[in-house]
Amino acid sequence: MSLYFQTWSAQENPNQLEITGTSETDYILKDGSTVYDLSSCSYHLGFGLRNKNLETAIIDQVTSLPVAGPKTVFPLKDQVTKRLLSKLGLEGKLFYTTSGAESVENALKIARNYSGKTDILARKVSYHGATIGALSATGDWRSDGHLTLSQNTHYIPEPYEKDALERTEEIINAVGADNISAFILETITGGNGVYIPTQEWWDGIQCLCKKYDILLILDEVVCGFSRTGKDFGFQNFKLSPDIICLAKAISGGFFPFGAVYFNSEISKHYDKNVLSAGLTNYAHPIGLKLCDEVLNLIEDQSFQDNLDQVEKLLSDFKENVQSFPNIKEVRHIGALMAIEVIEQHFSWKVFKENGLYINVTGQNIIICPIMTTDLKKLEDALNKVKNLLNKA
Ligand SMILES: Cc1ncc(COP(=O)(O)O)c(C=O)c1O
After folding, report:
1. Measuring from each residue's beta carbon to the nearest atom of ligand 1, which residues come in under 6 Å?
2. 251-283 pLDDT, tens per residue?
3. Would you say residue 217 lies in a domain?
4. In whole angstroms, what separates CA 256 from the centre of its chain?
5. Neighbours of 92 (CB within 10 A)
6. Residue 180 to residues 209, 212, 365: CA-CA distances in angstroms?
7. Same domain membership, residue 223 and residue 329
8. Torsion-angle region of residue 362: left (phi > 0), alpha (psi -120 to 50) or beta?
9. Alpha carbon 87 to chain centroid distance?
10. What is the pLDDT averaged over residues 28-42?
11. How many Å lie between the centroid of ligand 1 and the Cα of residue 277?
12. What element of type H or E holds 123?
């Protein structure tokens, strides 16, 4: 047994992959065989396990400005911030972090501080990160036993449940709007099953935000940076978030990095009030440089063309498999898909034995391909999945 812990598992016989290296889309194993990554690992390596542009960006940054403290000001910091805000298409400010959980943590902390209210509304079918605050907003099994702020967390009905909006309003009234700081919602659920809310549901949520003076925090840690076919998940809807949590693909997963967007009103509040938040590695230059390069990548026409083809291959795959007897539903947007099965015959290990890296959560098999993948390799991998699903 190793002397370091494996995450989210009992330490005896955990899911693990012993590798000697990686290619753009594959893990290379000791015996020379390869495992193709159909989940972008933890949904963060969207631009490949190897990527020349991102690797060069790191080297360039290390040889120009490798480190800089949180209070330093330098052109890259201004330039990337402006560029990311412009990509979001929103006015306001950014706060930098080093992970998804820290983005969520700081979003919740600042929302509570700004509003002077303590409670949040969250969804049961959700994951927001492994820190105590982020787990207190998380609804899936990972929050079991860690819901430290449980008295301040109230779970609303899932968007697809009957009378979801009416029942959400009842919860607001029962808790008291004066106590509720924010909704925290994954714009499109990631690892918990790719649930895509309707515009009608979002309209209802935004109405409740206005009526009861509640902030809207979107968790775009998975669905940001082109994953859903748009630059950001919220751009698939008519949506005006107050706060947006970003991480994972923001640096292509090549460096621990994240950011939180705050609207102009919240940002202005801290012109005169102390922003009681910060990190030692705030706005790390390597993270900033990678974010800049990720923005270059997603603006590149050849990336967009490949992404369109990835989306098409997934659409065709959905057409092919959705009528299989063991399949309950296939949900798909952009380069993100959940295959919900009736009976789960597939574990991470089963896919691994078939040369595929695919995350499985409950009844859902999550397909989240590397967006820069060779298309033939993706087609072959999807055919393998189809054959496995057909046999089940
Ligand atoms: C939607 C969502 N939010 C937040 C996080 C937490 O990100 P991190 O693991 O970088 O802390 C995750 C991680 O999987 C996630 O899927």
Report:
1. 42, 99-101, 104, 127-129, 186, 190-191, 219, 221-222, 247
2. 999 999 999 999 999 999 999 999 999 999 999
3. yes
4. 14
5. 17
6. 10, 9, 34
7. no
8. left
9. 17
10. 97
11. 20
12. strand 119-123
